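Need the bound structure for NAP, inputs here:
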Amino acid sequence: MRVIVTENPGPGYGLKIAQAEMPKPAAGEVLIKVAAAGLNRADISQAEGRYPPPPGASSILGMEVSGTIAALGEGASGHQPGDEVCALLGGGGYAEYAVAAIECLLPVPKGVSLVDAAALPEVHFTVWTNLMDSARLKPGECVLIHGGSSGIGTAAIQMLAARGHRVFTTAGSDEKCAACVALGAERAINYRKDDFVEVVKAATGGRGVDVILDMVGGEYVQRNMSAAALWGRIVNIAYQSGMQASVNFAPMLMKRLSLLATTLRARSNAEKGAIRDAILREVWPLIDAGKVRPVVDHVFPLADAQAAHARLRSSGHIGKILLTP
Ligand SMILES: NC(=O)c1ccc[n+]([C@@H]2O[C@H](COP(=O)([O-])OP(=O)(O)OC[C@H]3O[C@@H](n4cnc5c(N)ncnc54)[C@H](OP(=O)(O)O)[C@@H]3O)[C@@H](O)[C@H]2O)c1
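Answer from helper R.:
Posting the output first, comments after.
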C-alpha cells in the first residue's frame, strides 16, 4: 500500500510517498480502508523528531482517519466489513490502510461525507475530555477558547454554543474572528489588536469566565488567571508560546482556581473508549442534527502531504486539513 514516510526527521523534514506492508488488525482492532486522514499539529512535532509515537503505535504519521472497515481482528465484534467509520489512531493514518482499536471507532454522522468525517475524531475526543472530564464544565457556564480558528477551536465553539454556553474566543486575524463568530462564538477577540482579559472582563460585568481551554501557554498562563472567574478552571492542551513562564500564583489562591493539563494520545484504549462513548452520546446527535459540523479548510492528495504540512505550519487555515489517498 502507499504511505507517507518522513525523511530526515528534524526541522527540515520531508514527506514522501513510499510502499509499505499492509497493517494487520490485531485482536480488538479493525483494518480501515482510508478515505481521508486528518492533520494535527502534533504531526509536525513528530516529523521534527520531538514527539515519538506511543509504544506499539505505527511510526507512520496520522492520528485520525475516516474510511470503510476492510477486515476485522479477533473479537472486533459489533462491526462489519463495509461499515463507514471514523477513528482516533495511535499513528499510521497517512496511508491507504490503517488499523484502529474498536474503542476508538465512531460512526460517520448523518449528513457528513466520508472524507469530511476524518476531521471529527481528534478534535471531539480532545475537546470533550478536557472541558468535561478535566474542567468539569457545568451547564450555563461561560467559556474562553484560545485559538478559535484551529481544528480544536472550531469544534469547541460549535459544541459549546449548541449546548447553550456563552463562548469567547481568540484568533489572530479579523477574518478568523469572523469565522469564529459564524460558528457560534459570542465574541471573537483578535489577540493581535485587543487584550482578551479586558474584553472578557467587560463582557461578563467584571466576573470573568468559568473555564478556559488554552493551547498557547507562555504569558497566557498568567493572563488566563486574570480572565478566570472565582472557582475557574484553566485547562492546557498545548504550550505553543512556551513550556516555561514566570507566574504569580496569588490569583490561584484568591480566586480558588484550578490549573489543569492533559494529553490524549498516550491514554489507554479503555480511557479512550469512555470518551468515545460520551461523545457518541452527547456530541454525535448534535452533528446528526446539523448543529455541529466538521470545518474543513483544505483537502490535499496524500502525495501532497508536504504541502499540507506547509499550510498547517503557516497557520493560514481555518479548521482542519485533510489528506486523501
Ligand atoms: N493535549 C492534547 O491531547 C491535544 C490534542 C489535540 C491537539 N492538541 C494541541 O492543540 C493545539 C490545536 O491543535 P490543532 O490540531 O487544532 O492545531 P491548529 O489548527 O494548527 O491550531 C493552532 C492554533 O493556535 C493558534 N494560536 C497560536 N498562537 C496563538 C495566540 N497567541 N493566541 C491565540 N491563538 C493562538 C493559531 O491561531 P492564529 O493563527 O490565529 O494565531 C492556530 O489556530 C495544538 O497545539 C495541538 O498540538 C493537544
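Comments: Residues 40-42, 122, 126, 146-147, 149-152, 170-172, 176, 191, 215-216, 237-238, 240-241, 262-264, 312, 315 surround NAP (CB under 6 Å). The longest strand covers residues 29-38.
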